[in-house]
UniProtKB/TrEMBL annotation:
Keywords linked to the UniProt accession: FAD, Flavoprotein, Oxidoreductase
Family under the similarity heading: Belongs to the acyl-CoA dehydrogenase family.
Identification of the protein by name: Acyl-CoA dehydrogenase
Domain Acyl-CoA dehydrogenase/oxidase N-terminal intervals: 17-128
One Gene Ontology term from the biological process aspect of the record: fatty acid beta-oxidation
Cofactor: FAD
InterPro entries linked: ACX4-like, Acyl-CoA_DH_CS, Acyl-CoA_Oxase/DH_mid-dom, Acyl-CoA_Oxase/DH_mid-dom_sf, AcylCo_DH-like_C, AcylCo_DH/oxidase_C, AcylCoA_DH/ox_N, AcylCoA_DH/ox_N_sf
UniProt entry tagged with the keyword Nucleus: no
Lineage top rank: taxon: Bacteria
One Gene Ontology MF term: acyl-CoA dehydrogenase activity
Ranges for domain Acyl-CoA dehydrogenase/oxidase C-terminal: 240-362
Length: 363
């Protein structure tokens, strides 16, 4: 029995299929053995843990719900459980997977031609090639629809000019999906391959959250992209929104994962930390905080499961996913804050992990 099943107050596991339980437990076990013992050092140095990528690849989870092309074709529930377990170990690792498996790979799977899917996705599923998703810009974050990056047709290529900011994996990716407006003003997706002249990516420094995953500022200065690298089925920003809508539910699951980790860490600490002759878990003020955290986590678990179940039946809407993302992220922030508070002074030490989760949930 994995640690995941122990934080399951309403027996949610009974609603899961054997395949969903199996992938959840495999990811949880790998995280416990490989991620948790190492990640604080990478987080403190603000370095990406490249040594974890081969083991990550062996899990066979890259691509999530994509069917074929070497991807696992898992259910949306399973994909959510995977997202939660990765974030439960570390928010940076969860973000890395969210960008690669969902934003980048799903863009190609949903908006690319069959030839493009065959060309790009298998290597990405094996994690021999890493993906990034270049949408936000220095002047356009939440209003990404106003993006200014331009794509100009020149013979058998497109020439890209513009800037991108906060691009996860942007400095390490082999394939960066750049969203740009063409000469008619329509938004298209362009796969920019590593080493393309005119493409530069600078790692953003000074972050106080998600320090073990790199975001980049990207400059495109006459970057020439082959015409066959333009996603065939992307013709407007509405198509880009489809990708965001289809992947947003995993953000709710990631918030759940961070909340679960924080609650479990706080509970273990309160059971072992003695003050005034007894474990602090014996005091009602502490018990009230732990009970509230557990109730909110149970709420989040049921919401996330239901949302992914609706996604699996084709009934999830963008509004549903947005509501879950909003609720779970806000609730997780409160849970993590209370968990850190229960640690007292120890809560600011990386060795206890809660300080890392407390910083990461802000992002």
């Amino acid at each position: 029995m994995t640690e995941t099943a122990r934080t399951d107050f309403y027996a949610l596991e009974e609603l899961l299929t054997p395949e969903e339980i199996d992938v959840r437990d495999r990811v949880a076990d790998w995280c416990a053995k490989e991620v948790t013992p190492r990640i604080n050092d990478y987080w403190e140095r603000a370095e990406f843990p490249f040594e974890l990528v081969p083991g990550f690849a062996e899990l066979g989870i890259a691509g999530g719900t994509i069917e074929g092309y070497g991807s696992p074709g898992m259910s949306a529930v399973a994909a959510g459980l995977v997202a939660a377990e990765l974030a439960r170990a570390d928010g940076s690792i969860g973000t890395f997977n969210g960008v690669h498996s969902f934003l980048a790979m799903q863009s190609i799977a949903l908006l690319g031609s069959e030839e493009q899917r065959e060309r790009f996705l298998p290597a990405m599923a094996r994690m021999e090639k890493i993906g990034a998703f270049g949408l936000t810009e220095p002047r356009h974050g939440s209003d990404a629809v106003a993006l200014e990056t331009r794509a100009r047709r020149d013979g058998d290529s497109y020439v890209l000019d513009g800037q991108k900011k906060w691009i996860g994996n942007g400095s390490i990716a082999d394939y960066v999906l750049i969203w740009a407006r063409d000469e008619e003003g329509q938004v298209g997706g362009y796969v920019v391959e590593k080493g393309t002249p005119g493409f530069t990516a600078r790692v953003m420094t000074g972050k106080t959250a998600l320090r073990a995953v790199w975001q980049a500022e990207i400059t495109l200065d006459g970057a020439r992209v082959p015409a066959e690298n333009k996603l065939e089925n992307c013709r407007s920003f509405k198509d880009v929104s489809t990708i965001l809508d289809r992947t947003r539910y995993t953000v709710a699951w990631r918030a759940l994962g961070v909340a679960m980790a924080s609650y479990e860490l706080a509970l273990a600490h309160c059971l072992s930390r003695e003050q005034f002759g007894q474990p602090i878990a014996g005091y009602q003020l502490v018990q009230e905080k732990l009970a509230t955290m557990l109730a909110e986590i149970t709420n989040m678990q049921l919401m996330c499961w239901r949302l992914s179940s609706l996604a699996d039946s084709g009934r999830m809407t963008a509004a549903m996913a947005s509501l879950a993302k909003r609720h779970c992220c806000a609730t997780a922030r409160a849970i993590v804050a209370d968990a850190r508070d229960l640690f007292g002074g120890d809560g600011i030490l990386l060795e206890h992990h809660i300080a890392r989760h407390h910083a990461d949930i802000e992002a």
